[in-house]
């Protein structure tokens, strides 16, 4: 979600958080998704996204 693809740019952090929250327990493991959400919230300068 935070990588460049030929068909899209990295998603904004808010969208990534929403995707993780919507997929908790179904698409994403709740434990790991919760950790990722916390990491994203701490990454205020969006350094976790792929750099071009």
Overall pLDDT: 91
Between the first and last Cα atoms, what is the distance in angstroms? 14 Å
Q: Order of SSEs, N→C?
A: HH
Helices, by number, come to 2
Query: What is the molecular shape?
Result: globular
- Biggest sheet descriptor: none
Q: Helicity level, as a percent range?
A: 40-55%
Class computed from helices, strands and strand pairing:
mainly alpha
β content, as a range?
under 5%
- The low-confidence runs, each spanning 5 or more residues with pLDDT under 50, are none
Radius of gyration: 11 Å
The figure for the number of domains is 1
The total strand number stands at 0
Explain what this protein looks like in three dimensions.
By secondary structure, the chain is mostly helical. It has one domain. The protein is built from two helices and no strands. The chain has helices at residues 13-22, 30-42. Helix 1 (13-22) runs antiparallel to helix 2 (30-42). The two termini are 14 Å apart. The relative contact order is 0.21.
Concise description?
The protein is mainly alpha-helical and 52 residues long. It has helices at residues 13-22, 30-42.
């Amino acid at each position: 979600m935070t990588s460049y693809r030929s068909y899209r740019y990295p998603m904004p952090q808010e969208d990534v958080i929403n995707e993780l929250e919507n997929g908790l327990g179904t698409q994403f493991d709740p434990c790991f998704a919760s950790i990722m959400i916390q990491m994203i919230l701490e990454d205020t300068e969006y350094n976790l996204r792929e750099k071009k």
